[in-house]
């Protein structure tokens, strides 16, 4: 009888674990979809922020911080890519000038994102309004620099240029989404502030 019970348990355990994981995943998807509903590019938002679902859940402070943190990481990747293109010297003429300008723009973008992340890590109720104003200003400036980078390649159709522009465009979507999450937090106010273990 004991052996039969053990056999039944062994057969049912995988199904039970699968059900638990599916349920947890479903909640996670719900959290990130709810958070990303305020953004202009929800599909990009869901893809980039899904790993934060179980940590952030329904807290706008954590989602805003996650959005800015992901933007910093993505900007670093783009900067490395642009510097690599410069090192290889594969762009000539107008495109080379546009690439150099784009590198400058993205250095500014990265600076503004770092400043935003530094402040969002130290949000407090007394300085909340000023802090949110600073963050939205820096994120908006980052988006402007990203647009400026794209503008330098306007009308160019080479494969390498298209690839570069796609990377920058995706970065602009991520920054836009971060700004939307920050704006949502600003609208809600300092009552949602919590400590968080996010980077």
Automatic annotation (TrEMBL):
Keywords: Apoplast, Disulfide bond, Secreted, Signal. GO terms for cellular component: apoplast. InterPro entries: Invertase/methylesterase_inhib (IPR035513), Pectinesterase_inhib_dom (IPR006501), PME_Inhibitor (IPR051955). It holds the Pfam family PMEI. One of its GO terms (molecular function) is enzyme inhibitor activity. This is Pectinesterase inhibitor domain-containing protein. It is found in: Secreted, Extracellular space, Apoplast. The lineage of its organism: Eukaryota, Viridiplantae, Streptophyta, Embryophyta, Tracheophyta. Transmembrane segments: none annotated. Belongs to the PMEI family. SMART domains: PMEI. Residues 27-181 form the Pectinesterase inhibitor domain. Residues 1-26 form the signal peptide.
